[in-house]
Amino acid sequence: MFIFFFANGILALLIAPFGSSEYGLSFAIGSTLTFAFALMRLIQYVSDIDYHTFCRMTLPPRSMRFTRLSDRLNRSWM
Predict the structure, then answer these.
(1) What is the pLDDT of residues 20-39, one digit of tens each?
(2) The Cα angle at residue 13 between residues 10 and 28, in degrees rounded to 5
């Protein structure tokens, strides 16, 4: 959103001396730049989708119940 705001503002100031017939050009160029940036970010996110899906999830706390049971069974077998 900030990219569009600043690109549109700066381009509007640069294009303003050319007359009122060119006012929409800054909006079109700002929109195109913002779309290109969003597309690059989307491609980057999708290329790392495995990480975002599996590695960033929070795991539930581990229960010690089965660990204690396995320790008890290991001691009884030895």
Answers:
(1) 888 889 999 999 999 999 99
(2) 65
Render 2-18 in DSSP notation, one character per residue: HHHHHHHHHHHHHHGGG
Residue type, 22: E
**Inter-residue contact 12 to 23 (CB < 8 Å):** yes
**The residue to which tokens 């975002």 are assigned:** 52
CA torsion through residues 12, 14, 20, 26, sign: negative
Alpha helices in 1-78 (DSSP H): 2-15, 23-47, 49-50, 65-77
* Rounded distance between C-alpha atoms, residue 1 and residue 13, angstroms: 19
Q: How far apart are CA 50 and CA 47, in angstroms?
A: 8
Q: What pTM value is reported for the model?
A: 0.64
pLDDT tens, residue by residue, 36-65: 999 999 999 999 888 888 887 676 666 677
